[in-house]
Design brief:
Elements (H helix, E strand, L loop, with lengths): L4 E8 L3 E3 L9 H6 L7 H6 L10 H12 E7 H10 L9 E5 L7 E2 L5 E5 L3 H12 L3 E6 L1 H9 L5 E7 L7 E2 L9 E10 L4 E9 L8
Parallel strand pairs: 1-7, 1-8, 3-4, 3-7, 4-6
Antiparallel strand pairs: 2-9, 5-6, 8-11, 10-11
Amino acid sequence: MAGKVFFSVSMSLDGFIAPESLEDLMGQQWMELQQWIFPQRFFRENLLLGEGGEEGRDNDIARETFERTGASVMGKRMFDAGEQAWPEEAPFRTPVFVVTHEKRDPWERPGGTTFHFVNDGIEPALDQAREAAGDRDVRIAGGGATILEYVNAGLIDEFSIALSPVLFGSGIRLFEGVDADRVALEQVRAEPTQRVTHLTYAVRERELSRTQP
């Protein structure tokens, strides 16, 4: 049985998930946005940052998200930023399919991550990710434009947002350009923790009302 297709991101209160410029990706605002996950034990272990760290619901959610993921899909912008920032053992530890026009051989990293470069669009990338994931879920890792493409194509089953008490003012909005006439949401879960509120939604195709002639 095929798994779900989902995304999971941190978002500011005013709707942004990243700064506009890649140069600011590790800047103060982005670090504040992600501050809920940095102290977590699972995050530290997965990035080989050392022992210790916090345990609790935030840590459980980080672990659960990782464990449900059998393969990931991302856009070229996210890959370009990550290629410079990720450690040698990239934190995915599964196949990752990069939607890009660049032709490139698979890039295998220590620890189980192999990046595959897909040149013919989001659906072929998802098909390959589904096959690689087996009965586990496929995560659309980002960035925002790639997530939105999958949402507007009706290919997302579920998503989670860690709503962080941070204001960006500008940057990349998660739902900028969403096809709201097509997408309906059903809230699955809302879990506040000390640092963020975790929101999970199932995605349904909106039933458009029809008027009688």
